[in-house]
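Quick review question:
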């Protein structure tokens, strides 16, 4: 009997306990593969291994080209996660080329995205902090010189030594024209990079159901459940049609009109809901979850300072996670100390259920809490913010921050449309201006 037949038989004989769509698939050969690869890679010091890397900015490649943003990666998106795991599994198990997915965030940050945790759990990876190979686990500098890229197509500067070579690229961002000899090399538009992985590398491969499910989760998240008229392209529909039967979640497949079988639709809805779910996070994690850092040059300051400013975007109103009691403020100051920040801005965005907006979902509001160490910087910032005609801040009458040794102010935004995209340049303009 062939290995493949044995595997099919063992699947058929397994008691049908798992409920389709939500319950974890156990035991997971995928999780075992990940744990073994991590142990072997570390014990062999990288030798013959190929490191499979996802997009280091977790789906926002813009960050790489914005010079005033330092490289802070707290989040990794599901596309990057699923694509790198799948490419490593296929290279290792099918082509016998040892490969390991490197997840480019710290181990402690792996739990920040509930939709990632959910997809991993459904794919039998229930303890990602132990099972995945993260930046915290990787030797520094990394010993490997062979890389496969997914979800981006330029090797990160930290890995680009003279001997580095890129052996494979699968991506859906703009093609920078690098690594012409990579094989496979597919850089084409798609809703999800996972769709390229499924259609280029996974064809004629007997994927474990956990891996098919994981790739499918990424495609569902990136294409709003293959919504007609949305981000899904033909390649995403082809990939989903291929993966759905392998995932064992449904016997029927999707159609190109985007009608999903019921268990797949349920999985898709659950993932989408988790994307906005931060109920598992406390103040410390909320500050770090969606966070960017900027470097500011203060030519007006007597010591011509170069300072760091951080902006955290949080989808929960300040009072709900402890502002005004001192508990949120304590974590904010701890975060400033850990990151060496001169300024921390906490930008909230939420719906006020006590006031119905036009949508009936509650009026959309934004608040800002600011923490500043230096007196002179604080003076400038308050003046600049309070005079800005675009963001229109008003003092937050019902909330008083409780904090010692750091200047702080808290505002409501008159203009609830102003996101961090406009607050970041405003902060830079106010704090750097000579006058
Ligand atoms: Mn992507």
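Suggested answer, residue by residue:
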């Amino acid at each position: 009997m062939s290995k493949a037949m044995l595997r099919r038989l063992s699947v058929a004989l397994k008691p049908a306990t798992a409920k389709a769509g939500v319950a974890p698939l156990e035991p997971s050969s995928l999780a075992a593969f990940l744990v073994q690869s991590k142990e072997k890679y570390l014990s062999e010091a990288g030798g013959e291994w190929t490191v499979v890397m996802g997009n280091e900015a977790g789906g926002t490649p813009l960050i790489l080209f914005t010079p005033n943003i330092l490289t802070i990666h707290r989040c990794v998106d599901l596309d990057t996660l699923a694509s790198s795991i799948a490419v490593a599994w296929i290279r290792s198990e099918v082509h016998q080329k040892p490969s390991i997915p490197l997840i480019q965030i710290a181990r402690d940050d792996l739990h920040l995205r509930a939709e990632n945790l959910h997809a991993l759990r459904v794919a039998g990876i229930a303890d990602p902090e132990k099972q995945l190979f993260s930046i915290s686990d990787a030797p520094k500098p990394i010993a490997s010189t062979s890389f496969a890229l997914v979800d981006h197509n330029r090797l990160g500067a930290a890995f680009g030594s003279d001997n580095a070579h890129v052996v494979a690229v699968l991506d859906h961002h703009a093609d920078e024209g690098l690594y012409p000899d990579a094989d496979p090399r597919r850089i084409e538009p798609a809703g999800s990079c996972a769709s390229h992985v499924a259609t280029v590398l996974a064809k004629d491969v007997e994927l474990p159901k956990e891996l098919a499910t994981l790739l499918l989760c990424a495609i569902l998240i990136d294409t709003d459940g293959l919504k007609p008229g949305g981000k899904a392209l033909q390649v995403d529909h082809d990939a989903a049609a291929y993966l759905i039967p392998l995932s064992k979640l449904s016997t029927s497949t999707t159609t190109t009109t985007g009608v999903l079988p019921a268990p797949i639709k349920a999985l898709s809805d659950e993932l989408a809901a988790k994307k906005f779910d931060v109920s598992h996070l406390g103040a410390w994690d909320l500050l770090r979850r969606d966070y960017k850092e900027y470097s500011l040059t203060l030519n007006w300051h007597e010591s011509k300072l170069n300072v760091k400013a951080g902006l955290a975007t949080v989808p929960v109103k300040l009072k709900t996670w402890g502002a005004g009691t001192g508990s949120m403020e304590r974590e904010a100051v701890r975060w400033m100390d850990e990151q060496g920040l001169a300024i921390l801005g906490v930008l909230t965005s939420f719906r006020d259920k006590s006031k119905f907006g036009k949508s009936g979902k509650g009026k959309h509001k934004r608040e800002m809490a600011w923490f500043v160490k230096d007196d002179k910087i604080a003076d400038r910032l308050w003046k600049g913010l309070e005079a800005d005609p675009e963001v229109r801040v008003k003092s937050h009458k019902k909330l008083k921050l409780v904090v010692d040794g750091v200047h702080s102010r808290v505002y409501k935004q008159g203009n609830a449309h102003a996101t961090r995209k406009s607050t970041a340049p405003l902060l830079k303009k106010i704090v750097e201006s000579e006058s």
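Why it works: Residues 20 and 330 are 43 Å apart (CA to CA). The chain has 13 helices and twelve strands.
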